[in-house]
TrEMBL record:
InterPro entries linked to this entry: ACP-like_sf, PP-bd_ACP
UniProt name for this protein: Phosphopantetheine attachment site
Domain spans labelled Carrier: 8-84
Gene3D superfamilies: ACP-like
Natural source organism: Allokutzneria albata (Kibdelosporangium albatum)
Length: 87
């Protein structure tokens, strides 16, 4: 699997978690990998549920105090791929 394949698979998993948590809110919007979550109308409760879903689904821990700029799917991909490379 190439690095781009791994990134695409991870991006898909993040989108799946996002839609599991806030699907009804997002269905009428065109959400791309660089869409800022605050622009979608996602509440802070939905965002925290999304973080929990990713942590469970991917068996990772996301420190929101250290990573306050996690506002898009691509930023999540960057963080998780960076952490995987250093693990």
């Amino acid at each position: 699997m190439t690095a781009e394949d791994a990134r695409a698979e991870l991006r898909q998993q993040i989108f799946e978690a996002l839609y599991e948590v806030a699907g009804s809110l997002l269905e009428s919007q065109d959400i791309g990998p660089d869409t800022e979550f605050p622009e979608t109308g996602m509440s802070s409760i939905e965002f925290l549920a999304f973080i929990e879903k990713i942590e469970t689904k991917l068996d990772v821990f996301i420190d929101l105090e250290e990573n306050q700029d996690l506002t898009t799917v691509n930023k999540f991909c960057d963080l998780l791929l960076e952490e995987a490379a250093t693990a």
